[in-house]
Amino acid sequence: MSSLSDKVAMRHMDIYMEQEDKYTEAVMSDTERLQSKLQSEMASRLAFDLSTPPLHWGPWLYYRRMEEGKQYPVLCRRLFSLHEQFINHKSPSYGFDFTSGRKIEQKLLDYNQEAQRFGGYAYEELSEISPDHQFLAYTMYDKDSDYFKLSVKNLNSGALCSKPRADRVSNLAWAKDGQALLYVVTDQNKRPYRIYSSMIGSTDEDVLLLEESDENVHLNIRHTKDFRFVTVNRFSTMSSKVFLINAADPLSGMTLVWECEGLAHCIVEHHQGFLYLFTDAAKEGQSVDYHYLLRSPVDSSLSLFNWESVFVDNQAMIVEDVDFCNTHMVLVVREGRKYRLCSVALPLPGWKGAVQLKDLLPQFLPLPKYVSQISLGPNYDFYSSIMRFTISSPVMPDAVVDYDLSSGNWNIIQQQNMLHERTRILYGTAPSASMDEKLSKTNSSDSINEANVDDNNLWNDLSEFYACEHYDVSSYDGILVPLTVVYSSKSKKENDKPGLLRVHGAYGELLDKRWHSELKSLLDRGWIVAYADVRFSDQFRAFINHCPDLFRAVVLKVHKNMCLHLDTLYEYLLVKISKFDPIKRKFSIGHVAVQLRSSNPCANHTINLYLFQVPFLDATNTLLYPILPLTAADYEEFGYPGDIDDFHAIQKYSPYDNIQDGVLYPAVLVTSSFNTRFGVWEAAKWVARVRERAIYDLKRPILLNLTTDIVEENRYLQCKEFALETAFLLKVMGS
User: Fold this and answer.
1) Whether residue 241 sits in one domain with residue 133
2) CA 182: distance to chain centroid?
3) Are residues 536 and 492 in the same domain?
4) Do the strands 266-271 and 308-309 form a parallel or antiparallel pair, or are they unpaired?
5) Terminal CA-to-CA distance of the chain, rounded, Å?
6) How far is CA 115 from the centre of its chain?
7) Is 605 contained in some domain?
8) Are 614 and 682 members of one domain?
9) What pLDDT is stored for residue 699 in this prediction?
10) What CATH number has the domain bearing residue 182?
11) Domain containing 690 — which CATH number?
12) Could you report the per-residue pLDDT of 608-656, keeping only the tens digit for each?
């Protein structure tokens, strides 16, 4: 299955996948009506997910919208001066004002047409409007070639430019006010290694600015928000460097502005004569697992850089992200589990060295309860004081919010209000108006995707119906594992509710705890949903920071110990959290299913039920003989098998190498796709070996669901896959 260029092998694989599909269909045949019902439920909640609210940049409003009966969105824009006229007429919602006959909307790119160019799929990775609003540079995935192709479109004529047209493009950055485009291409192993500059409209060959021959080094570019500079990141496990290119003259060379040892995340911005660097680079030789902000004055010659910290280190308030406009700096900060969003006026007062955040008189912006994530942008207009954020919560559909940093006013410009109304009807808390009237009112407002609110308005969260609770679970080794539990507070108070424990353990990332509309089908049926950050705790952070030399040993040990942490969480959900004082007890969990994403060594744990999504199951062979390209971060995370100690450690946690003989395995549904970073053959090998060695039990099926489609870009396939997974949970748990 890994011989992707072998046509005979691929034909055998097609037959194998068809057999697996038929087996899964046979096992799940008694849930066909349930899957259909679930798919309808989920489709109704995804109706507006691919439509975006207008984004103001210069004289234009940019947005994507869905057309009725079409699978993919259309990228559009309209003049900001026609905005009021646009939102006042109701039919049609987009396009023309038939009263005046004036064209309001300009279609920039129809992704349905792009799908016809690229084998039925429209999977875009990059999309950048030029700063003069004349061109659109974008990359589309070519499934046959397995890489992204660059195209540039003239937005005035609607025609594709003759150049640049390049294959295997991984990054873009505009220069010379939109007259030049810089782009990065990858080698055959998908390593970004060359940077080119192309003059739009010129017949000259594109100029090679940099080629990196070291196979361990990767390149990345981006423009600063004021389009003054293009930054070039050159990074490997050994070192990280940032260079600046003068955007007005991209052929004038590059200047080194920052370097550090080890692999570090480095983002450079420019504001009125100062460079700001947001990084997690080691401090004084000591590794850190948080980001901090530096700044340095910059002169026209780019010759002198003196980096100093902006803020005094404060472990009680971690800066998670930062964004800039011409008048303000915005910070996403975290205090324990609590996220906050604040703005600081620019330019910063006199150069006094590092200060406390409070000394800069930050203005904290209003947020709802239970915020689990704050995403910045897109904020393209550097000279606008209005900045956009997406606020996420386990009990609230994502809210896209515009904050005016100058006035303090804020608007929720997109949120699924319909979800709130339908839930009120479901639980019998809606006013006496009919359901049809409710939905028609909701549809009319959601079709525009805008809703003005004032400071006293609710966030349309669902905390009226779904409770969200946080726990710190003490594991066997004393580590406190954060656990977030969500359940319906309106459903019937029954004993032995089913539970779903969601876990993601790779790269030390926090689990995505945003509201997921597909999980509503489980919550409304009385399920408990829990999120476990098995790699995230303040104690683990502190240990890593004080023992940087033991990082590799710690990471490899964590992969092994994650299963023990999972046991602790499993027991906690089944026993401790369900055994409170009966008078105060809110729920009791009878059975728990576990949903594992990405890399997780716990695949062979004999817990009640598993869902594996895009699993990394054959770590030993994949790291020894990589078929798909691996990065330095992959070896840093999972170990380097060329080192004998790492090799033995990998074998001990690699799920495929630790399948048990003669054991009754739990029911398992493994899902994977050819468009993921881990090969589908890993999932197929693990399933085949478990079936061969484990005790067979019809009530505990081992199912494999493989797709060749890009599920994330196809709403129909999304709902179909979610419905299958949910039906599997309901069937096996007897719910």
Assistant:
1) yes
2) 25
3) yes
4) unpaired
5) 36
6) 23
7) yes
8) yes
9) 87
10) 2.130.10.120
11) 3.40.50.1820
12) 566 676 667 777 888 877 766 666 667 766 777 888 888 888 888 788 8
Which residues, 6+ apart, have CB-to-CB distance to 240 below 8 Å? 233, 234, 259, 260, 261, 262, 263, 264, 266, 281
Strands (E), 325-393: 328-335, 338-345, 363-364, 373-376, 386-393
DSSP 561-577: HHHHHHHHHHHIIIIIT
Please give the model's pTM, rounded to 2 decimal places.
0.83
Same domain, 106 and 222: no
Does any domain span residue 702? yes
Give the count of domains, the chain. 3
In terms of C-beta density within 10 A (0-12 exposed, 13-18 middle, 19 or more buried), how is residue 363 classed? middle
Range of the domain at 569: 464-733
Cα–Cα dist 643/367, whole Å: 48
pLDDT computed for residue 628 by the predictor: 62
Which pLDDT score is estimated for 442?
A: 35
Domain boundary among the residues 98, 118, 138 is at 118
Q: Are residues 575 and 500 in the same domain?
A: yes
Taking a C-beta distance cutoff of 8 angstroms, is the pair 472, 572 a contact? Answer: no
Q: Which residues of 574-598 are buried (b: 16+ CB within 10 A; e: fewer)?
A: beebbeeeeeeeebbbbbbbbbbbb
Q: Note the pLDDT of residue 95.
A: 52
Instruction: For residue 55, report the phi and psi dihedrals to the nearest 5 degrees.
Output: -115, 120
Q: Which two tokens stand for residue 331?
A: 């910070």
Angle at 147 between CA 596 and CA 198, to 5 degrees: 130
Helices 32-45 and 715-732 meet at what angle, rounded to 10? 130
Our CA dihedral for 134, 140, 144, 147, rounded to 10 degrees, sits at 100
Residue 537's SS3 state is coil
144, 76: one domain? no
The answer to whether 248 and 347 are in contact (CB under 8 A) is no
State how far the Cα of 690 lies from the Cα of 665, in Å rounded to an integer: 8
- Name the stretches of the chain with pLDDT < 70: 46-50, 83-103, 300-304, 351, 418, 430-458, 476-477, 492-496, 504-510, 534-590, 596-611, 613-615, 627-633, 636-637, 674-678, 708-715, 735
Residue 357 lies in a domain: no
Residue 528 sits in the same domain as residue 650? yes
Whether residue 321 contacts residue 339, with contact meaning beta carbons closer than 8 Å, is answered with: no
Q: Assess if residue 281 is contained within a domain.
A: no
| 242 and 134 in a common domain | yes
Nearest to 136 by CA among 149, 153, 117, 112: 153
Rounded to 10 deg, the angle between the 644-653 and 551-571 helix axes is 10
How far is the C-alpha of 442 from the C-alpha of 425, rounded, in Å? Answer: 13
359: its two tokens: 């000394």
For residues 583 and 635, the answer to whether their CB atoms sit within 8 Å is: no
| Predicted local confidence at residue 386, as pLDDT | 95
Q: For strand 135-142 and strand 147-154, is the pairing parallel, antiparallel, or unpaired?
A: antiparallel
Amino acid at 614: V
> Which tokens sit at 732?
């096996």
Tell me the two tokens of residue 703.
């199912």
Q: Token pair of 154, please?
A: 């003239």
Q: How far apart are CA 21 and CA 706, in angstroms?
A: 8
Position 422, amino acid: R
* Residue that terminates a domain, selected from 235, 260, 285: 260
- Cβ atoms of 500 and 516 within 8 Å: the answer is no
